[in-house]
Amino acid sequence: MNITPLKSTIGAIISDIDLNQLTDDDRHTIKKALLSHQVLFFKDQHLTTQAQVAIARIFGELHIHPVFPTVPNVPEIIVLDSHQTNLKDNELWHTDVTFSKTPPLGCVLRAVKIPPTGGDTLWASQTSAFDALDDDIKNLLRGKTATHDIRLSFPPERFGQSQADDEKLQKAIADNPPISHPVVRTHPDTGKEILFVTEGFTSHIDGLDEQTSRELLDRLFAHSIQDDFVIRHKWCEGDVVIWDNRSTQHKALFDYGNNHRIMHRATIVGDVPFYDQQHQKKVI
């Protein structure tokens, strides 16, 4: 197995490995690399669905998404199909499922069908984004919380067009009321501070008036996706990407018109975000 860093802030390619046949040493190396690089890219893998589930379970229990369709008889794998779901309006930066009490630890995404052009995905390191803030803003944000709301990215006009879909969406909204998380969270494994607000789900910063909250969030959103923190991946069928959902956000580009794009995603259950300025650990 060879690990090649792509940027100092984020990303590494792992080559000379078959994800369908992993040893215990391989699994340990992948877990360690994810903490160091936040997003891992594997080319020409052509995973089976069962292997994708097994890889995701290296990191923990798997999440069942309340809205997206799944692979038949495999509820742990959601299907992102541009011909079945309106993905165009989801072209925004987000961290997955932060509307839950325990947002995901990470995700394993594989390319099933790729359009001839377009459809790239971008990831941004939120540890690097926080590190680059000036000290006054860091101190302002530490200890604050923000509200995350499922309705920002899952509105009825997109996900409730049929009666069955609307009933599923309304249940998801009822099961996931708006929830507050730290604006700056502590990574449970590395101890690093992470900027934890995104356009996709963060509605406001708690305790601030509406205008102040909006202006601060807009400033943080723009800061968090600067080129220095971002890596972009051009997909090929068979590619697999694993990312740390706690310390990154991402955006899939919808620039391929009516061409067909299908991705399968396994999502790993995380823990309750917290902030502890004294919590320090060495990277595993």
UniProtKB/TrEMBL annotation:
Ranges for domain TauD/TfdA-like: 3-267
Keywords, alphabetical: Dioxygenase, Iron, Metal-binding, Oxidoreductase
SUPFAM superfamilies: Clavaminate synthase-like (SSF51197)
Superkingdom: Bacteria
Repeat in keyword set: no
EC primary class: oxidoreductase
InterPro entries recorded: AtsK-like, TauD-like_sf, TauD/TfdA-like
Matches recorded under Pfam families: TauD (PF02668)
Keyword Transmembrane helix: no
Entry EC no(s): 1.14.11.17
GO molecular function list: taurine dioxygenase activity
Family: Belongs to the TfdA dioxygenase family.
Name the UniProt record assigns to this protein: Taurine dioxygenase
Organism lineage: Bacteria, Pseudomonadati, Pseudomonadota, Gammaproteobacteria, Moraxellales
Gene this protein is translated from: tauD
